[in-house]
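User: Okay, second chain of the day. Same drill as before: sequence in, structure tokens out.
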Amino acid sequence: MRRILNRAIAYCLMVALVQFAPCSAANVAEESMNNIEKRSVTIWSDGTRMAGDLYSPKGLKENEKLPAVIFCNGTAGTKKGTAAKLAPIFAGHGFIFLAFDYRGWGDSDSKVMLVDSPAKPDAPGEMIAKVKPIRWQLDFADQAYDIRSAISFLCGETHVDARRIGIIGSSYGGGLVTWVAANDPRVKCLVAQVPGMGAGRTEASLNASFELATKQARGEVEPVPLETGKLKGKLERFNWMHRNPVKSIGYSPIEDAHKIAIPTLIVVASNDELIDNDANGHAVYEIIKDKGNVPAQYHIVQNVGHFDIYKKGFAEASSLELQWCEEHL
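Assistant: Same drill. Structure tokens below.
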């Protein structure tokens, strides 16, 4: 416990330098990376290449095994954002840390949709076809699979202890990791930050999704929302993103939360302008806590909004998340 506390104090001092001394921040980040190895990796997910960055402490012994953490992005997030800030912190504390871009996001390859009927495959089983790239989709079903592919990738890493893998997700990614933790027994520790758990879905919205599914299947509307499906309201700022409600049918982290049997930390922002904390993160916390035998913690970062969790709320949130993973992995 003393070791964890000392690391937490040192970490908070480092973050204070980053926040209040921009010139020193670069030096701190550079010094922390001096003891960390970062390498680009390719993760295959259902036949599509995903781009990843794998961070690990330098100088690992041949047979040394470490716990590992995967960071899963929220809306429009990439491995170069919050994940890149968390990576040296976790790797500096003895974790292997994987950041990656979902299929069709960031540096990852696009999923594709055939435009015309392709030619027949040649002898090696290859063909030339005209396709449309599918990018920047909020796609619950496929991105949950992407996370599971990232877990599978880590399980094959030489220095990863496959019995000690945790997942951290933020915002949209917070709901995704909650669903994955409920359905993939390889996950041993869960952190959901300012999570959207799919609360507020009604019978009317479900029926609307089924109606849209019928139209997509019959080609009466775009089979994939490349032009339609723009985000609205407070998410309109992400004007390059598209949402397909059909892909959320059957996806509910809240309904699956009763299956979670691993230590779970949920971190929310007190002034979250996007998400109703009581209906989302707190609802899942109550379900897990009521099981009685699963460690669960619910923490509110005070006086910050949804997007502040990546800035002025970053030090508090990430320190808690690091301590949680150290304790349970």
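The two ends are 14 Å apart (CA to CA).

User: Thanks, on to the next one.
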